[in-house]
């Protein structure tokens, strides 16, 4: 149960809330491949942004872009009433929020603050963070993203938001500067649930498109012709239409640049592992046979040394072009 005191004090969407927060800087924790461009888009929208990252190079890039680096999450929360976090995994989220120098430590986020976690982790982590925040009279939502680094750079991300509905409008006012769509998914943790379901489908469909193109190659079918057919018939999906995994079919996608600069195979592995764990923890327990096979395929790709390559590089492994 989320403390109603936090909602009463926060009053999202009211003139009082906007007047209180408009003059305050925004905080951003986690300034890597995703968080860095997201923070820059907040600055482009006219916001002053203070931030923290464990990487000195990420902090330097943030400063070069006009941000103000601070020494800890606690320091960020002490000056920013709204803080966005974008972290690699659930353990980092719990540390950044609940650690000794965390956002919710004494001297950090206070009554009326809004914390927006854009990391991808278990729904239970989003729910735990919401409880921790509520105990301090602080409002928190989970808002994981879809779209990858290109969408982070172009401010076209999709945000899936979980938390008390009255907070959605206030969170959207910030998130809209970093994405093209903000969707309310339900109570705390439901943004994370939506993200895991989405990426489960993504991992499976990408594997299917990779197999289709591998078969086309063996049968002598022109790969661009296959892509044209897929994208105008029943095989149409995002993995083929927007992010085709076959080299030479599309420009501007990881397959056109050696599978660099995209969504790493190891990150897809992480998300499929989280989805599998959530399914096993559900009541009654749910099996994910397609997801389990996809998890195995990306695990093999990673074990062969391509964990940092874009997950669409699975095409090379299926087509046996990778030794």
Automatic annotation (TrEMBL):
PROSITE patterns: 3_HYDROXYISOBUT_DH. Its EC number is 1.1.1.31. The keyword Lipoprotein does not apply. It comes from the Eukaryota. Transmembrane segments: none annotated. It catalyses: 3-hydroxy-2-methylpropanoate + NAD(+) = 2-methyl-3-oxopropanoate + NADH + H(+). Residues 26-186 form the 6-phosphogluconate dehydrogenase NADP-binding domain. It is an enzyme of class 1 (oxidoreductase). Residues 189-314 form the 3-hydroxyisobutyrate dehydrogenase-like NAD-binding domain. Pathway: Amino-acid degradation; L-valine degradation. Keywords: Branched-chain amino acid catabolism, NAD, Oxidoreductase. InterPro entries: 3-OH-isobutyrate_DH-rel_CS, 6-PGluconate_DH-like_C_sf, 6PGD_dom2, 6PGDH_NADP-bd, HIBADH, HIBADH-like_NADP-bd, HIBADH-related, NAD(P)-bd_dom_sf. Belongs to the HIBADH-related family. 3-hydroxyisobutyrate dehydrogenase subfamily. This is 3-hydroxyisobutyrate dehydrogenase. It comes from Durusdinium trenchii.
């Amino acid at each position: 149960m989320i403390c109603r005191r936090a909602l009463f004090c926060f009053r999202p969407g009211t003139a009082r809330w906007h007047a209180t927060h408009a003059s305050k800087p925004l905080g951003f924790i986690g300034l890597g491949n995703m968080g860095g461009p997201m923070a820059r888009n907040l600055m482009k929208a006219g916001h002053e942004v203070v931030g923290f990252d464990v990487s000195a190079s990420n902090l330097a890039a943030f400063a070069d872009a006009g941000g103000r680096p601070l020494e800890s999450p606690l320091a960020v929360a002490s000056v920013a009433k709204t803080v966005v976090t974008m972290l690699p995994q659930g353990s980092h989220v719990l540390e950044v929020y609940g650690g000794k120098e965390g956002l919710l430590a004494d001297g950090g986020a206070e009554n009326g603050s809004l914390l927006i976690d854009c990391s991808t982790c278990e729904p239970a982590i989003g729910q735990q963070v919401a409880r921790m925040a509520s105990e301090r009279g602080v409002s928190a939502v989970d808002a994981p993203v879809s779209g990858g680094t290109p969408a982070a750079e172009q401010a076209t991300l999709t945000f899936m938001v979980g938390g008390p509905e009255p907070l959605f409008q206030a969170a959207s006012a910030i998130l809209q500067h970093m994405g093209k769509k903000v969707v309310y998914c339900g109570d705390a943790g439901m943004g994370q649930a939506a993200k895991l379901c989405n990426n489960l489908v993504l991992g499976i469909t990408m594997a299917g498109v990779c197999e289709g193109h591998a078969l086309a190659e063996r049968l002598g079918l022109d790969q661009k012709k296959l892509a044209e057919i897929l994208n105008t018939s029943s095989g149409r999906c995002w993995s083929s239409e927007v992010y085709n995994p076959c080299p030479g079919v599309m420009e501007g996608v990881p397959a056109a640049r050696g599978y660099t600069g995209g969504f790493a195979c190891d990150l897809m592995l992480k998300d499929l592992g989280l989805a599998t764990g959530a399914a096993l923890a559900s009541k009654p327990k749910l099996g994910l046979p397609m997801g389990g096979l996809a998890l195995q395929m990306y695990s093999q790709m990673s074990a062969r040394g391509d964990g940092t390559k874009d997950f669409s590089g699975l095409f090379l492994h299926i087509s046996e072009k990778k030794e």
